[in-house]
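Researcher: Here's the sequence for the chain we discussed earlier.
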Amino acid sequence: MDFVDVNESNARWVQDFRLKAYASPAKLESIDGARYHALLIPSCPGALADLASSGSLARILQHFRSESKPVCAVGHGVAALCCATNEDGSWVFQGYSVTGPSVYELIRAPGFAHLPLVVEDFVKDAGACFSASEPDAVHVVLDRHLVTGQNAGSTVPAVQNLLFLCGSRK
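Model: Thanks. This is the structure I predict for it:
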């Protein structure tokens, strides 16, 4: 991992960071869902392109769905859920209630016309129920073992619900 603008004031932090285990994250392809109790997918713009079509993440999400393990996705991270399909091609979260960035939030950002995926449209087309609040409002949906948050501002309550689900599992 490379850092830009490293100078005397932050060089020690960069050096310390590189010594930490999380400085070299595991590849998604090597993750065994059976080893994990919960999954958190934060809001990240890359989810729209990379994670939304990841076969490795699809395998993990299919495992979590079949075991009813807690899954939490927030903001653009909700797009990552779109990769998980059943053998018949249906979405594994069909019939769930979900939130994510609304079209109204997305159109305000530059590059809307070039987005590879609009989560709201995908969710509705895949047979799930999509809801959203006003743009930038906190909005979280909990359905069974799935927690979704509309935007980055919904991160704290979404993660609190994820932790609640983790604590209630037997």
